[in-house]
Design goal:
single chain; about 240 residues; alpha+beta; Glutaredoxin; Glutathione S-transferase Yfyf (Class Pi), Chain A, domain 2; 4-stranded mixed beta sheet; about 5% strand
């Protein structure tokens, strides 16, 4: 059995962390049974979420976990992909995880409207997830410093949305009219694309980026298709059967 440790459910999504959401999506796509529990960062092997416990062993980092699961259970999702498809999937994943991710974080932590919407979610993670009481202003300031050091925090909201919209355009263009990113069948890369698209769309703040993403009809259809196939039976933890 796989125990998946992640941040709380919110905004009607299985998880607000794109990386937690990505890993849960992969587990469902691969048909691997799991139990989801609230993470405790002091117990996380790499000090971040998600992390898992498999056969008594704790493992961190969503991509390393996925690669481990492929080796352990077989790679039913990506085994038939061509080298070119693997390269495209890798490139899209890196763009979303290393660039688009920071734009999402910016809109939650830097933008005042985004912070007001996100703050109640952060409060639910204190102290259970973070392991102790942390003043919200101090936590936000720490994240602002991280964003500044990373580089995204040095931009204006308008500039960040321009950059983020370019990422969305790239994904929409590559997707085209295909049912999934790389063709007729889903691949592990779709776990990444879906989790990031929904992370943008589910934001209760009506940002320019959210509206732009919703205007990409093929991505909206894609998200609906993915949800119907892999998350149709999903329910928030408080309503799941014991």
């Amino acid at each position: 059995m796989i125990t998946l440790y992640q941040t709380p459910v919110a905004w009607g999504m299985p998880n607000l962390s794109p990386f937690c959401f990505k890993l849960e999506s992969y587990l469902r796509m691969a048909g691997l049974p799991y139990t989801a529990k609230l993470a405790q960062l002091p117990h996380a092997p790499k000090g971040k979420v998600p992390y898992v416990e498999i056969d008594g062993q704790l493992m961190g980092d969503s991509q390393f976990i996925i690669e481990y699961l492929k080796r352990k259970h077989g790679d039913t999702l990506d085994a038939k992909l061509t080298p070119e498809q693997l390269a495209i999937g890798h490139t899209v994943r890196r763009m979303l995880e290393e660039c688009t991710y920071w734009y999402i974080i910016y809109m939650r932590w830097v933008d005042d409207a985004g912070w007001r919407a996100y703050m109640p979610v952060v409060e639910t993670m204190i102290p259970d997830v973070l392991g102790g009481p942390v003043p919200l202003p101090m936590l936000r300031q720490k994240m602002l410093q991280i964003l500044h050091d990373q580089g995204t925090g040095r931009h204006s909201m308008e500039e960040v949305q321009v950059l983020a919209k370019e990422d969305i355009t790239a994904v929409a263009t590559l997707m085209g009219n295909k049912p999934f990113l790389l063709g007729e069948a889903p691949s592990s890369f779709d776990a990444v694309v879906y989790s990031f698209m929904v992370s943008i769309i589910a934001n209760p703040v009506d940002t320019e980026l959210k509206q732009y993403t919703l205007s990409q009809e093929n991505l909206v259809r894609y998200c609906a298709r993915f949800k119907s196939r892999f998350f149709a039976n999903w329910k928030p933890p408080e309503t799941r059967a014991a």
